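I have been asked to look over a protein record a colleague put together. Alongside the sequence sits a line of tokens, each denoting a local backbone shape. Please read both lines and tell me whether the tokens look consistent with the sequence. I do not need a full report, just your reasoning and any doubts. I have pasted the whole thing underneath without changing anything.
>
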Amino acid sequence: MKKLVCILLTLCMLMSAVSVLAFEQVLDENGSPKYTSSANYTNSGDINDTNTEYEFKSPSGYYYTVIPVDTVTVDGEKQYLFISNNYYGKFPDGTVALTGSATKEEREKFIFDPEITTSYAYWLNNGFFDGSKKAVAVNSNGGVALDSEIASYIRTHDWYVNGYNGKSTDNTYIDKKYNFDYTVNCKVAVLSIDDIVKYAQYMKKTLKSAGSENTVNADTYACILRTFGALDGAGASSLIKRQNPASGNAANSGSSLCGIRPIFYVSEDYFKNVKLDLTTAGSEVKKIISELNPSVYNDDELLALKGIYTLTEDGSSESLSTDDWYNTAGATIANGTINLPGVGGRFLARNLPGNVKGGIINIETKVIGNTAGSSLNIGFLDPSSNSPSFRYPLYFFDGNFLGYYAEAKTGTGTKYKRLDNNDNDLWYTHFASPRTLRLTVNLDTGNCYVSVSGEKAGANTTANIRYSLGTTVVPYVDSAKTFSRIVFYNSSSIATTLDDIKITYDPNGNAIKSVKKTGDKEIKITVEDYVDLKDVTKDSICLTANSVSAISKDENTITATLTNKLTDGNTCCVIVNDMKRNDVGSANYTIIGNSKVFTVKTPTETVIGAPVISGNLTSGSTVSAASAVTKGTLTDVKPVQFAIAAYNGDRLIGAKIVSVADVNTAAELKAEITLSENATEVRAFIWDANNYPICSAVSKNK
């Protein structure tokens, strides 16, 4: 009995370690075996080594590309298609090249069917999969088994194989069933030509040797495809299909070029449980991980996965890092602060981790000097330019004034229209030392806003202005440009002192979805689902030529009561500060740059017209009633009841009630009845959800 139990346990272990194998013929709509031919593939440039957005390096040192178009969900689990970017070596039982005189048994090794126990498909899902039989190295490249770290996350899949030739006759060297399309259910496969055509735009061309960083890109390291070659041919040696990593092309070749580049479906649990090096992961891989929100990453790493990063400089080091800063101005650190000398045409620029286009940048710094004549410009530098002269949204002048440049214009006389309809430059006057400057730029729209030590805009011309431009006037920053550095520029001859520089970049753009007027002194602000509003107060909200006296909040909306009435037709900008993300735990990150330009419009309710009754009031006639619906701008759900009733004198002879869940979604209201006898009158009624009448009509038999 013990021996039997041991045997059963052994079988269970083997069954759990080895993939389920199942050959299944593909049938056409008539129930006959289906045949789909595959052509050769010539790379037109889609497969290239710049396709890195979907690539990552595993902690175990293997490279993969995640294919986004074929993610599947099985029993509630997401499964991602991985293509290996490693060359593993050769199929160990296929190292002797096939010739035209090879036997059927020798050729079967190169049929992708794991039910053939001598085939490379069987080996991929057994010895290669569990590590008991490694691939054979080629010139010291490869020679390893499957990445063991990923093996437990690989799921079985039905892999499609195009038939050999679609003929119903027997072959000399290939069983007839392989003439037609089929699927096999297993874990590990290799590419087909159809896969290459479909996934070319995501694929890397050049491979690395599995287990090392060596690059392999010659025909010697070509990899076998599961698409049939000329395997039944006689007198030929180019019997298999392979892809060349040097060119990306696919064609018939000798079986000596039978390298392994595996592909497989991987559970979402891999991304949840295995922590990747985010500095080497492609941008699209980061998005996948971010959506899964795995616990193996800390809060700051989760922010990085969303593309959000913060750069700081607090003057605590002895000098500015040459890796972080482009310092043509010769700025220095002394007494814990940054001294920015006034050197004409030179500047201090913080290198960003990568080029940015779109999203929002927030720049904060303390400005300490207020000596007459000192100045500070803050702007952006694009990668193709060494001069940021026309990229400044903001500048200080004489240590007292804060103003703006419009895009591609310089000088203190630049004019444009602000949201409060003044044609003057924006200035901050009486700039006392020290002050904390905060500049936020929306790179999607080009709009900016600024605050100095959190002060709000006042009613006079000497007050701090912190409102952005509207969408119909010249933007401060050209949103079509790509930027690589944040520039601090002192255009005067007097040094300016900076401290506690903090630059935050958020590629996600505004978290405000919409702003609508809901009353004479009320607006409703709707934000994205990832926003936490708990820290938002009435003082967090700024509005053009207005202020907020009170707010109420629910999950993703803020209703703000204003001090002044809103005037229809005016263009306004609302800014909401102090919003947090609800998907990054306790990360110390406030969502920035949340401004929204909107046109004030008085909300209107949906109007229901009086019912119009039509039809004869004689027995057997159909009488209908219809009310036109004029949609308003308010979207609150408004259920109504629409009824039609027929009377003969005081006696009710027929009625129909139609319930409408939301009149805002209806083009019209309509009901009808067929009379069982002559009627003296027909009435139509409309009630709201509280049974209050809205309108009615009557039609009498004359």
Remarks:
- Residues 1-20, 395-432, 455-475 have pLDDT under 50 and may be disordered.
- The longest strand covers residues 63-74.
